[in-house]
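Deliverable D2.4 — example input (structure tokens):
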């Protein structure tokens, strides 16, 4: 990922859209655009889920406090005990909801946020490649003009200006060669880093999804256990 971050810092928009001749890059750019769109939507959904989970925790906590007050004022002994136990159960469930909200955020939401940022860096890197392409193409255009000028001077019999034009041609030839080298270099680096990115993305998502599901199952089991423990109290009301 170092190439993405390094190049992205220096990236700027090209003056015109590059006509992509490499099918691999065209496919990858389309994939990156689609991935970014879906990751942003998923990240927004997870953030909303975190907020709803926290709201549920707050509501559960408020219910627990109200139930506790009711239990203390209830004269029927068995009913009072059951309501008090319900309040304690709901208080522990409140903590479970908050714990799950933290898991949603720190395990899942933050990963998605990191990858949305990384996808943005990938897109900037593609744009930097386009910039390198335009620099190369502009150098080729200038070289063609200088050679055309050289031909005209030779035809017009103006040797006094030929030396300067020949020197400029030499300079532009070097710029064309350098531009091509830079373009091929960044293209090779992007291929390598995108392959690494795709491998790491699959691995990271697999690990996080497993970790997230295990935590979710654990929280659900704790919820079931809380209600199973409370059920005898409810049945004992007579």
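Example output (designed residues):
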């Amino acid at each position: 990922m170092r190439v993405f971050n390094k190049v992205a810092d220096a990236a700027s928009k090209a003056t015109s859209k590059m006509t992509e001749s490499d099918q691999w890059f065209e496919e990858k750019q389309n994939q990156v655009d689609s991935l970014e769109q879906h990751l942003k939507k998923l990240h927004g959904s997870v953030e909303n889920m975190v907020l709803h989970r926290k709201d549920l925790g707050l509501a559960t906590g408020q219910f627990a406090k109200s139930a506790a007050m009711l239990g203390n004022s209830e004269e029927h002994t068995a009913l009072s005990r059951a309501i008090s136990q319900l309040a304690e159960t709901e208080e522990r469930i409140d903590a479970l909801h908050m714990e799950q909200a933290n898991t949603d955020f720190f395990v899942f939401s933050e990963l998605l946020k990191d990858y949305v940022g990384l996808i943005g860096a990938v897109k900037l890197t593609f744009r930097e490649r386009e910039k390198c392409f335009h620099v190369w193409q502009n150098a080729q255009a200038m070289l063609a003009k200088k050679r055309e000028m050289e031909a005209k001077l030779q035809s017009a019999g103006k040797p006094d200006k030929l030396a300067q034009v020949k020197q400029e041609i030499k300079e532009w030839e070097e710029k064309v060669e350098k531009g091509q080298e830079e373009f091929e270099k960044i293209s090779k680096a992007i291929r390598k880093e995108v392959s690494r990115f795709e491998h790491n993305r699959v691995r990271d998502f697999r690990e996080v999804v497993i970790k997230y599901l295990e935590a979710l199952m654990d929280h659900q089991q704790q919820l079931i256990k809380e209600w199973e423990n409370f059920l005898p109290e409810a049945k004992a009301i007579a």
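The first helix runs from residue 2 to 10.
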